[in-house]
Design a protein that fits this description.
eight-stranded antiparallel beta sheet, 14 strands, four-stranded antiparallel beta sheet, 309 residues, alpha+beta
């Protein structure tokens, strides 16, 4: 089985910094957090330039099955049952760059997926916002000025409004380039956002109800061949990560072609599971010393322009 390193980027509001967010996560160390029906633990260490993190998901079943090969084509199934406070678990290491909020996430089959990790991070971020909001409201109440408090209370609640956090996969530029390099001319580019980017004042009041948003550019026939059109599309996809895109163009063989871009997490590196998992890798009392973090940091350094921006 292989372990993959996926890239991700967190977008956020201005109410709190990543250091505020990091300190909040650290304060949750040892606290079981229930998310999507699973109990989870999160470990976070503050280092120069990066936060180093580990997400552990506790499985609620006590029984696991193992396939044992005997002789020839004979097999048996071995049942293992844990007792007491012992639970099967999955783990996911991650690193986050402090300036860009971009990072790498380690995933293997059956463990917490990248999109679920993004949802978990959003829950933690919103919990942090709520805690900071409650703290400022309590400080305001202690000042004992009801006239000033009414207007200030609305201001504080608006400042810490929920829903400012999003998580999306990072793509390497070469992955996008591979999709369009065969096109000699580009006629049209269409894209779909999973989350609305509506800014028009007519829809601002209902943007929370918009499920998708679509857009397109058509290029004049005299400029279909321009290389900067490809560069612009690549830059747009890497900057905005639409859920889906379609590029209409003509191949070098003169055939009309529609290239569909389904945005999925891009694999930055992969390792063998059995070779990577050692006692040192999962020593929770010194988790920041895990050799897995050095592997992730090495991948980040090789992709410095993407991770650090």
């Amino acid at each position: 089985m292989e372990i993959h390193a996926f890239g991700f980027e967190w977008e956020h509001g201005d109410a709190i910094t990543i250091d505020d967010f990091g300190r909040y996560i650290v304060s949750c160390l040892g606290t079981t957090i229930v998310f999507q029906g699973q109990e989870r633990l999160v470990y976070l260490k503050d280092t120069d330039g990066y936060y180093l993190g580990l997400l552990i998901t506790s499985r609620d079943h006590k029984t696991t099955c193992e396939l044992v090969r005997q002789h020839g084509k004979n097999y048996t199934v071995k049942i293992r049952r844990t007792t007491g406070n012992v639970h099967p678990m999955d783990f996911n290491f991650f690193i986050v760059h402090k300036q860009t909020w971009r990072g790498l996430y380690l995933h293997y089959r059956g463990s917490c997926g990248l999109s679920t990790f993004g949802g978990f991070a959003r829950k933690m971020y919103n919990d942090c916002l709520r805690e900071r909001c409650d703290m400022e409201l309590n400080e305001l109440a202690e000042q004992g000025d009801p006239n000033r408090a009414r207007g200030k209370e609305r201001e504080i609640k608006q400042k810490y409004k929920q829903g400012q956090f999003t998580s999306q996969p990072l793509l390497r530029e070469e992955a996008v380039e591979r999709l369009i390099k065969d096109l000699r001319r580009i006629n049209k580019f269409e894209w779909t956002y999973a989350m609305p980017h509506v800014e028009q004042r007519w829809f601002s009041s209902v943007k929370n109800y918009v499920s998708t948003e679509r857009g397109s550019f058509s290029f004049s026939s005299s400029h279909h061949h321009r290389a900067d059109i490809k560069d612009a599309i690549i830059g747009f996809i890497n900057a905005h990560i639409p859920r889906r895109g379609v590029i209409h163009g003509t191949t070098t063989q003169g055939e009309e072609k529609a290239v569909t871009i389904e945005v999925k997490p891009d694999v930055f590196q992969e390792w063998d599971y059995d070779a990577m998992i050692t006692d040192d890798a999962l020593n929770l009392s010194a988790i920041d010393k895990s050799p897995i973090f050095e592997e992730l940091l090495s991948v980040a350094r090789r992709n410095n322009r993407i991770i650090q921006g």
